[in-house]
Amino acid sequence: MADENLTGDEKAKDEKEEVYYQGSPSLWGSAGKLLVCGFLALGAAIGCFALTPYGWYIPALGLLVAAALLALPVLLVRSTRYRVTSYRIDFERGLFSKAIDTLELWHVDDIKFHQSLFDRLLGIGQIMIKSTDASTPELLLQAIPNPRPVFEALKQRIITVKRQRGVIKLDAG
Asked: How does DSSP assign 129-169, residue by residue?
């Protein structure tokens, strides 16, 4: 077979990139912001309807402000996207303009998983990644739906990618 003659780097190039997670954080992760904005929107709508005697445009303006307040947390969550693959993590953000950071897995030093009781009930969690990458030394993947399989896959894949690239960690100890 031809694959037996390939080096580790050549085998890595032949492997297809597998996507572990792709999408935006869960809206459940912004439930608090959504609740606060909902109360503010309700207050704006009620306040503006109290000013109805001063013209029809004030309640209309109040409803517009209320709708914007409700849409703001949703737009902010949807303007963030993660793409976690077997070789890299792409972090895209921006509402009107876009910025994309890429973190190669072989740069990762440490990976942590956190899921509060509330997060467990909602089926979301956070993955914190610390790396030697100059532009992305820390990356927090927030409100990931069903996060444990993503974390486990990343943990194993980081080890594999580092072995393929011959990365050796030296302790200064």
From this structure: EEES-SS-SEEEEEEEESHHHHHHHHHHHHHHHHHHHT---
Let me know: does 41 contact 62? Beta carbons within 8 Å.
no
| Residue 98 CB partners (closer than 8 Å, separation 6+) | 92
Which residue in 81, 110, 109 sits closest to 95, CA to CA? 81
Phi-psi region of 158 (alpha: psi -120 to 50; beta: other; left: phi over 0): alpha
**pTM, rounded to two decimals:** 0.76
Q: How far apart are CA 132 and CA 94, in angstroms?
A: 24
| 81 three-class SS | strand
- 96-124: burial string, b at 16+ Cβ within 10 Å, e else: eeeeeeebebbbbeebebebeeebeebeb
pLDDT in tens, 67-106: 888 888 889 899 999 999 999 999 999 989 999 999 999 9
The label of the residue with tokens 């069903």 reads: 146
The domain limits of the chain are: 18-25+82-165, 32-75
Instruction: Tell me which of 3.40.50.720, 3.30.1660.10, 2.102.10.10, 2.30.29.30 is the CATH number of domain 18-25+82-165.
Output: 2.30.29.30
Q: Look-up: residue for tokens 């693959």?
A: 85
